[in-house]
């Protein structure tokens, strides 16, 4: 079978935000003194693959949900980190990604984060080179410097970069939270599969309103700062 070398056209599927919550093996709670919010690859190039005509489509739900979480995070002093792949990567930088996805992004304006979620002053922007947000970036070092050992993951695509980032973070003893309604994927089934794997292997799956409630409750309770392991 020939390798897939471009993004698929993604239909406007809908997702139950409680998907995979029953499969969680952890009872972790998001703490504003420990957390980092990751907005993963919400670039026009990736978001444009979705059919956005249905207002209730998962990609539209995700965009709105990420916006709310990012606003809350900034208000609470939680670092908001954006990843974005660069355009026109050299063959050496692109590496084996070319075998699966071809040339990738070009310098046509679609490398930018979508306007609805544009980074704000004080946010962190990382150049993304591989599926994991930790590969060839200083994300882990930034987290350690801020004594942060929780990562709340949002963005696209759930079963590729989001899940790979979650696995890598888990292996470095970072508590990972996957937010179903703040993510989107190639299909409903692949999205569900990523969440189920995360809940049973490396993360806590928690819908956005619960994340927000835990952050607000912890802020009111003035939680003790817990350093990274």
Automatic annotation (TrEMBL):
Pfam families: Isochorismatase (PF00857). InterPro entries: Isochorismatase (IPR016291), Isochorismatase-like_dom (IPR000868), Isochorismatase-like_hydrls (IPR050272), Isochorismatase-like_sf (IPR036380). Coiled coil: none annotated. The keyword DNA-binding does not apply. Residues 36-205 form the Isochorismatase-like domain. Gene3D superfamilies: Isochorismatase-like. Signal peptide: none annotated. The chain crosses the membrane at residues 151-171. The keyword Transmembrane applies. Keywords: Hydrolase, Membrane, Transmembrane, Transmembrane helix. PANTHER family: ENTEROBACTIN SYNTHASE COMPONENT B, PEROXYUREIDOACRYLATE/UREIDOACRYLATE AMIDOHYDROLASE-RELATED. This is Isochorismatase-like domain-containing protein.
